[in-house]
Amino acid sequence: MHDPKVLRTRHLARFQAEPALFVAPGRVNLIGEHTDYAEGFVMPAAIDFATLAAISPRTDGKVVIYAENYSEERTFDAAALPAKASKHWSDYPLGVLAILAGEGNKIPGFSLSLWGDVPLGSGLSSSAALEVTTALAVTSLMGVHYPGPVLARLCQRSENEFVGSSCGIMDQFISANGAEDHALLLDCRDLSFKLAPIPANVALVIANTMVQHAVTGGEYTSRRAEVEEACAVIARHRPEVRFLRDATPADLEKWGSEMTPNALKRARHVITENLRTVAAADALIRHDLVELGRLMAEAHKSYSHDFEGSCVEADAMVELAQDLPGLIGARLTGGGFGGCTINLVERSQAPAFAEALGARYAAKTGIKPQIHICHASGGAHRIE
Ligand code: GLA
Asked: At CB < 8 A and 24+ separation, what contacts does 345-348 make?
């Protein structure tokens, strides 16, 4: 049902009102993992999995949200929206409303239908897609326009402050600002970015290990705490280092011994990952796919060994891809501890690559993976 016409028809039938339609994509990160909250660099691309929103105004002061994926409707008073999350899918749209209200917007009554095909808990940013499409739909209904980077920041805040996940800006940013057939090198310090074209003969092959990951709580949060702990050690000597973005490999040489072994390893990952990410964007822009693949391989090693953000299945998925024809580079993508690997593959070889990788992975782990051949899509927008 990626077809917005179907969502429109269903919205019309359910709410007897013609909706405006919006879409926001999920994302895959080519390189730059756990660097965003350290004010570093990331290079994601938006993908063709997305969340659609259909919205129409109401005159009864109610906010009615229907999730097609769960066949479930929730109704609230626009004037008395929940101030706290309840561990329910509605937390994501409600979080966006809470942040928009906090920005001084009066939330009107509306009916909102949501439908998405971004696989959940797979590291492809289903939550960001949901937040961004909601934000776009609601602001457009209110007649308010936020530029893409500002909208992304509001959606990140809704996840940090309302949903309670300590994520960085990457996912919301690329969902709001992605560009067709391009990866985006984002400087998470000032949100400046550079687009890097993905050559037409390169496919994004996304391989889902089927091991679920969660950003809220757990390992993501403890890794982030270790990154901040390492930064605090360096800052004792160099107060100008506010985030690991400001630190260098030389800082680790000098002061790494004052860190706990885990903090040292996490910092080594983040500091080298920032260097790799900038170099990878450069390689992509120069069309040097061999160098890009080499950097992706190094990034995976660092993510797995130093950051300890991988898992047996994801390591196997990367390993099993290595000698398959057409592979340019492979690594675990997203928050870690499961989810998907990203494989850059020569497009003509992609179908055979996907089939062979799936068969190898199933034979090795006993798990049947989902493998998707994607292309870089555009960012969130209204569908006319
Ligand atoms: C998740 C978070 C992002 C980022 C990645 C790791 O996707 O939402 O902000 O930290 O993990 O790179």
From this structure: 345/202, 345/203, 345/205, 346/201, 346/202, 346/203, 347/200, 347/201, 347/202, 347/203, 348/201
Q: What is the mean pLDDT of residues 281-291?
A: 98
State in Å: Cα 60 to ligand 1 middle.
39
Per-residue confidence (pLDDT) for residue 218, from 0 to 100: 87
Between CA 297 and CA 325 the distance in angstroms is 16
Is residue 2 over pLDDT 90?
Answer: no
pLDDT band for position 154 (50/70/90)?
very high
CA distance 200 to 53: 30
Identify the structural domains of the chain with CATH numbers, from first to last: 4-197 (3.30.230.10)
Q: Which two tokens stand for residue 118?
A: 């971004």
Looking at the annotation, which residues are catalytic?
A: 171
Length of the chain: 384
| Tens of pLDDT, residues 322-373 | 999 999 999 999 999 999 999 999 999 999 999 999 999 999 999 999 999 9
Residue nearest to atom 9 of ligand 1 (CA): 168
**Any ligand 1 atom below 6 A from CB of 340:** no
Cβ 85 vs Cβ 94: under 8 Å: yes
Residue closest by Cα to atom 5 of ligand 1: 335
Spatial distance between the Cα atoms of 150 and 139, rounded to a whole number of angstroms: 12
Look at residue 272 and tell me whether its pLDDT is greater than 60. yes
DSSP bridge pairs for 79: none
Ligand 1 pocket check for 270: Cβ under 6 Å: no
Helices and strands (H, E) in the chain, number of each type: 11, 12
